[in-house]
Design brief:
The chain is 33% helix and 23% strand. It is α/β, with parallel strands linked by helices. The chain folds into two domains: 4-80 and 189-257, HAD superfamily/HAD-like (Rossmann fold), CATH 3.40.50; 85-185, Hypothetical Protein, Haloacid Dehalogenase-like Hydrolase, Chain: A, domain 2, CATH 3.30.1240. The strands form two sheets. It has an eight-stranded mixed sheet, with helices on both faces. The chain has a six-stranded mixed sheet with strand order 8-7-6-9-11-10, sandwiched between helices. The radius of gyration is 18 Å and the shape is globular. This is HAD family hydrolase.
Length: 264
């Protein structure tokens, strides 16, 4: 019987640029809770951003935030990965040298910017809608750093080899959406975040399902028995998941109808 269902957001639960959750998803999450199935929002987004997105059910779900660097359940932090400051500052110096690359530094509840353009500052505040702190000097972040992101408007895929070569041996480096590349402490990924929750809740792989579409979802899909690639998922994600669906809601509806039991 299923006890936990985790889903990526952008490109998976939210497709085609949609920025808000449907009433159907919110109702399904409520029904899953009544059945004893925990829904997990697994995303590169920050915790406070996810809380706002899931506002009607924000107290009823768990969060694997910042691509696994932060895990929160019932308002408590179960796990947090942090960078050594020296490595984080080396990354910041490298990003600042790249003309078209914007950087975002993640703390627990806010992100820090030293924007190169006013357009990027407005994008982060008004479109991404993160809790945002603008600093005159990004090296003065006043808390532990859990993630450093590179925003490349022309596409993160093209820049990924450079950043993986530069820091891939010392950090987890993944593309996260079309324009974003995320770097987390070496042990941080969505799979590790899900392992933290499974251990805390005493669940096995057979109790868990997950949905994803991009490279940052691969480790999470390996942690469950029932994995799904959604929408325009990468080939590697489809192969790892072993199953494909058009929408997360389609599978959730079947799970609810089947009383939480799994029938292919």
């Amino acid at each position: 019987m299923l006890k936990l269902i985790a889903s990526d957001l952008d490109g998976t639960l939210l497709q085609n640029g949609v920025r808000t959750l449907s009433d159907t998803v919110i109702e399904q999450i409520k029904q899953l809770k009544e059945m004893g199935i925990l829904f997990v929002a697994a995303s590169g987004r920050q915790y406070t951003n996810l809380q706002r997105l899931f506002a009607p059910v924000c107290e009823d779900i768990a969060y694997v935030c910042e691509n696994g660097a932060l895990v929160v359940y019932k308002g408590k932090i179960l796990h947090k990965n942090v960078f050594e400051r020296e490595l984080a500052e080396e990354m910041l110096h490298s990003i600042l040298k790249k003309d078209r690359a914007e950087l975002v530094v993640s703390g627990e509840r806010t992100v820090y910017l030293q924007p190169k353009t006013e357009a990027f500052r407005e994008y982060m505040i008004n479109f991404v809608k993160n809790d945002t702190t603008v600093l005159p000097d990004i090296f003065q972040v006043p808390e532990e750093i859990i993630k450093i992101s590179v925003y490349e408007e022309n596409g993160a895929e093209a820049i990924a080899p450079y950043w993986k070569k530069a820091f891939g041996s010392r950090a987890t480096v993944v593309t996260s959406g079309i324009s974003w590349l995320d770097m987390m402490p070496l042990s941080a990924d969505k799979g590790n975040g899900l392992r933290v929750l499974k251990k805390h809740l005493l669940l096995s792989d057979e109790n868990c399902a997950a949905f994803g579409d991009n490279f940052n979802d691969l480790e999470m899909l390996q942690e469950v028995t029932y994995g799904f690639a959604v929408g325009e998922a990468r080939k590697e994600v489809r192969e790892t998941a072993g199953r494909v669906t058009d929408r997360v809601e389609t599978v959730l509806e079947k799970v609810i109808k089947q009383g939480g039991n799994w029938y292919e």
